UniProtKB/TrEMBL annotation:
GO biological processes: phospholipid biosynthetic process
Predominant localisation class: membrane
Extent of Basic and acidic residues compositional bias: 9-42
Keywords tagged on the record: Lipid biosynthesis, Lipid metabolism, Membrane, Nucleotidyltransferase, Phospholipid biosynthesis, Phospholipid metabolism, Transferase, Transmembrane, Transmembrane helix
A single GO cellular-component term on record: endoplasmic reticulum membrane
InterPro entries: PC_trans (IPR000374), PC_Trfase_euk (IPR016720)
Family per record: Belongs to the CDS family.
Record-given protein name: Phosphatidate cytidylyltransferase
Residue spans crossing the bilayer: 71-91, 97-119, 126-143, 170-188, 195-217, 223-244, 265-289, 339-359
One MF annotation (Gene Ontology) recorded for this entry: phosphatidate cytidylyltransferase activity
Region annotated Disordered, chain positions: 1-51
Length: 445
């Protein structure tokens, strides 16, 4: 990280509060507040990082202008990342989940590092350790919930897992409470305000990064198509918006991102919708992509084999008369999921970019060019996943609202946790209901 220097600028509304707080500390402690105490709106200028482009690319593109050189660098690295994406899809859902976890950890590290740098918090007692400890606690809570929901039979089979599952939330709370007490014990005079800034910084980072990555894994369990199509739509929109903006962009879109244009925004929208329809049509025909990811207790491995639901079976849809007269077709054969893909691709094109705008505003607030320099021409991992996180939340809400009904596995889990007399009462109620509906005869019952 490059050298940081203070801006020396304060807004009037903070001056009075800071002065009053400083006087209060001086009276209470008998000492003036430390110079290291950073005021809320005083941030450091962070200079852009050095050129991290591989030397082989610099030599190969040395004759081009900076504009075209950046275009080729971004293009080559984008193709490399797409190839890597195809490889991890081929390796299966377990590898995908591990990659999501690795991306989450890297994004957390990038944002926390910015906090350390901007607020000069390198020497705060315990704070780096506490930040990673809280990450561990939150991951334990979320992944424990996931294991209990999707690996219920495995959890019930192993005694240690059953105990951990039963008291999972209490253990999670105890772990977090331990970190909270450690933070309180780490508070030192002259650094109070800075320590609370960083405490809040850590928790907001956890909210943005860990919660969203947890939702991505939940989407994956619904079927790999719910993981791949949304992510691919965001990638497609990012690429096509850049392409349309590069060649046709003239009208600025938003001040937070001066290089974004209306031409790129609109062109990316139409390209992404078409891409989503085509990708959905190809993937909906394969069970590997459409079946929910389940754990097979016999083989102790993940399986993605099932009878595809109605969502992934071809249907004939009538076309409006205007369209019929234009193209001569009365019906069109497509998967119902393709209709949902229009909603996903539209969100990726219209709302998804606001995740990028939010990240741009964040970087401008702290005067940094990128979150890191992990990927030449692209910045850090967080620079590539700023739109993916808001997309993951939308997909999870969309599935819960329009696709998924009650989870039978979770219902069974709750039933088995009841007393035997309560289970028997529910059994008799369910038996009466099925007989009344004609699905079960009284003789069989």
């Amino acid at each position: 990280m490059t050298e940081l220097r203070h801006r020396g600028h304060q807004e009037n509304d903070f001056q009075g509060d800071n002065k009053q707080e400083s006087e209060s500390e001086a009276k209470t402690d008998g000492e003036p507040p430390s110079d290291n105490e950073i005021k809320p709106d005083t941030v450091a200028d962070v200079q852009p990082g050095a050129n991290d482009t591989p030397e082989v690319l610099n030599k190969a593109l040395s004759g081009l202008s900076s504009r075209w050189k950046n275009w080729w660098i971004r293009g080559i690295l984008t193709l490399a990342m797409i190839c890597f994406f195809f490889i991890i899809i081929y390796l299966g859902p377990m590898v995908l989940m591990m990659i999501v976890l690795c991306v989450q950890i890297k994004c957390f590290q990038e944002i926390i590092t910015i906090g350390y740098s901007v607020y000069h918090s390198y020497h705060l007692p315990w704070f780096r350790t506490l930040s990673w400890y809280f990450l561990l606690c939150v991951n334990y809570f979320f992944y424990g919930e996931t294991v209990t929901d999707y690996f219920f039979t495995l959890v019930q089979r192993e005694e240690p897992l059953r105990i951990l599952s039963k008291y999972h939330r209490f253990i999670s709370f105890a772990l977090y409470l331990t970190g909270f007490c450690m933070f309180v014990l780490s508070l030192v005079k002259k650094h109070y305000r800075l320590q609370f800034y960083m405490f809040g910084w850590t928790h907001v980072t956890l909210l943005i990064v860990v919660t969203q990555s947890h939702l991505i894994i939940h989407n994956l369990f619904e079927g790999m198509i719910w993981f791949i199509v949304p992510i691919s739509c965001v990638i497609c929109n990012d690429i096509m918006a850049y392409m349309f903006g590069f060649f046709f962009g003239r009208t600025p879109l938003i001040k937070l991102s001066p290089k974004k244009t209306w031409e790129g925004f609109i062109g990316g929208f139409f390209a992404t919708v078409v891409f989503g329809l085509l990708l959905s049509y190809v993937m909906a025909g394969y069970r590997y992509f459409v079946c929910p990811v389940e754990f097979n207790n016999d083989s102790n491995s993940f399986t993605v084999d099932c009878e595809p639901s109605e969502l992934f079976q071809l249907h004939d849809y009538g076309l409006p008369s205007v369209v019929q007269s234009a193209i001569g077709w009365k019906t069109i054969r497509m998967y119902p999921f393709q209709i949902h893909s229009v909603a996903l691709s539209a969100f990726a094109s219209l709302i998804g970019p606001f995740g990028g705008f939010f990240a741009s505003g964040f970087k401008r607030a702290f005067k940094i060019k990128d979150f890191a320099n992990t990927i030449p021409g692209h910045g850090g991992i967080m620079d590539r996943f700023d739109c993916q996180y808001i997309m993951a939340t939308f997909v999870n809400v969309y599935i819960a609202s329009f696709i998924r009904g009650p989870n039978p596995s979770k219902v069974m889990q709750q039933l088995l946790a009841l007393r035997l007399d309560q289970q028997l009462q529910i059994f008799n109620t369910l038996k009466s209901h099925l007989i009344e509906k004609g699905l079960l005869s009284e003789e069989v019952a």
